[in-house]
Amino acid sequence: THGRDSPSIVIFSITLLFLVATVRTFTFDVDAGLQLGKWENTTAISLNLRSGRLIIPTVSFTEINVNRSALREFDGLLLRKVFPKIFSSSLVQHELVGNYSQLFRIPGSEPDLEPYMLLAHIDVVPADEADGWDAPPFSAQELNGFIYGRGTIDNKQSVMGILQASEYLLERGYTPRRSFYIGLGHDEEVNGLYGAANIVKLLKSQGVKLQYVLDEGLAVLDGIINGLDGPAALIGISEKGQATVKLSVSSAPGHSSMLPRESSIGILASAVNRLEENLMPRLFGYGPERSTFEHLAHKFGLPLRFITSNLWFFSPLLSRVLERINNTNAFVRTTTAVTMFNSGVKINIIPSYAEVFVNFRIHSAQTLQEVLELVKSDERVKVELVNGFDPLPISSYDEQAFGFQIIKKMVQSMFPQLTVAPGKTSDAFLLNTDTCESLFKLINCFNTNVDVCSVFFIINIRI
């Protein structure tokens, strides 16, 4: 009898499982832990950006090589002229930090409330029109309804937006309840060692404890995830870790007419091939990425809605799907990018030395040390850590998380049609338990149907 009942029990269990999953699909909480707190109503302020910020080439080349004359020009000839109130108001405390970074403090009417900080950076990465720009990268040229220029997205639009909003409020005599800081770094693109790092030191020396920091992150985008109905804002609640690792091989030199069995280039090339063939482990569900998809579930069509509403069952399946897509593979694991390879001086000489640099963006469920252990595989290859840091702690994003809820309210007041979800991005300085409780990351601008990679990082950056 027991044997005859077994198929019935299995069928019943599968049917019950399917019914539970189906019910979850169509009743899954739209906010799923992101219930909006009853914060005070605010009014969105629309202010035009000044394109003059894009003409000044505030380029950071290396940690010690930044365009100092451009930074001085950006400060003296642009910021202080465009925003005179914030530099002259007796209410605002202003300091230059590290010669070129800016720190403002706007005191609130209730000094017992913990302040927050709005963070942006003035510097940009190098750009050359010969790389394929449709308009010169430092021209601020308008083309087909867009303003082109290095810094339109990363990150001068935040600099100008923050200062314009502050200028507007100061002109109208507004005093906030909660004090806040504005931090504008000048060398973020080269690790912020003299800008953000010195801002943190200054805040710590003054005993400042920040409620939260809002820094640059993803923009409000439409089409960032295939199958998602409508635009979405992923508020970064964690920062991936980073590591730059140098792999090098030293061997006896030779001549192409009498070559050795193995060369330094060949040994190193094999090591690089192993790195690219053996990806870092899948870690989907061990960081905030599962919450990201659960909060977006109701905006997917079938069958994705069914899958994302039931990640308690389908996480392994979704993980395998995401890793096959270049744009979403980073959700799943630590990414490995071979960026520089150096060796050889003459076409007929076998070099004695070869080196390669590899950049890792470390998943929040992994540590820097764990990544380094996985890199080591050949005793002939020397592994050196150039620089790196662990992933940042995950900031709270539930209904009691004041910072997250305020940012969500702000975004939805400007773009009522979008979906807000927690996410993660790829400045470690400011998330310090002595200085700051939570770090959130978002660029509050709207882009539709754009190539995220080209617009954010490479060429034809535009807004």
TrEMBL record:
Q: Which InterPro entries match?
A: Bact_exopeptidase_dim_dom, Pept_M20A, Peptidase_M20, Peptidase_M20_dimer
| Pathway noted in the entry | Amino-acid metabolism; Lipid metabolism; fatty acid metabolism
Question: Where does the secretion signal sit in this chain?
Answer: 1-25
Q: Does the keyword Zinc apply?
A: yes
**Pfam families assigned:** M20_dimer, Peptidase_M20
Q: In what residue span(s) does the Peptidase M20 dimerisation domain sit?
A: 237-376
Annotated keywords: Hydrolase, Metal-binding, Protease, Signal, Zinc
> In its UniProt record, which GO terms are filed under biological process?
amide biosynthetic process; amide catabolic process; amino acid metabolic process; proteolysis
Task: Determine the domain of life of the protein's source.
Answer: Eukaryota
Q: Which SUPFAM superfamilies match?
A: Bacterial exopeptidase dimerisation domain, Zn-dependent exopeptidases
Q: Which reaction is this enzyme known to catalyze?
A: an N-acyl-L-amino acid + H2O = an L-alpha-amino acid + a carboxylate; N-(9Z-octadecenoyl)-L-glutamine + H2O = L-glutamine + (9Z)-octadecenoate; N-(5Z,8Z,11Z,14Z)-eicosatetraenoyl-glycine + H2O = (5Z,8Z,11Z,14Z)-eicosatetraenoate + glycine; N-(9Z-octadecenoyl)-L-asparagine + H2O = L-asparagine + (9Z)-octadecenoate
Q: Name one GO molecular function term.
A: aminoacylase activity
User: What's the stated role of this polypeptide?
Assistant: Secreted enzyme that regulates the endogenous N-fatty acyl amino acid (NAAs) tissue and circulating levels by functioning as a bidirectional NAA synthase/hydrolase. It condenses free fatty acids and free amino acids to generate NAAs and bidirectionally catalyzes the reverse hydrolysis reaction. Some of these NAAs stimulate oxidative metabolism via mitochondrial uncoupling, increasing energy expenditure in a UPC1-independent manner. Thereby, this secreted protein may indirectly regulate whole body energy expenditure.
- Tell me its family: Belongs to the peptidase M20A family.
Q: What is this protein called?
A: Peptidase M20 dimerisation domain-containing protein
Species this protein is from: Cyprinus carpio carpio
Per the UniProt record, the lineage of the source organism begins with:
Eukaryota, Metazoa, Chordata, Craniata, Vertebrata
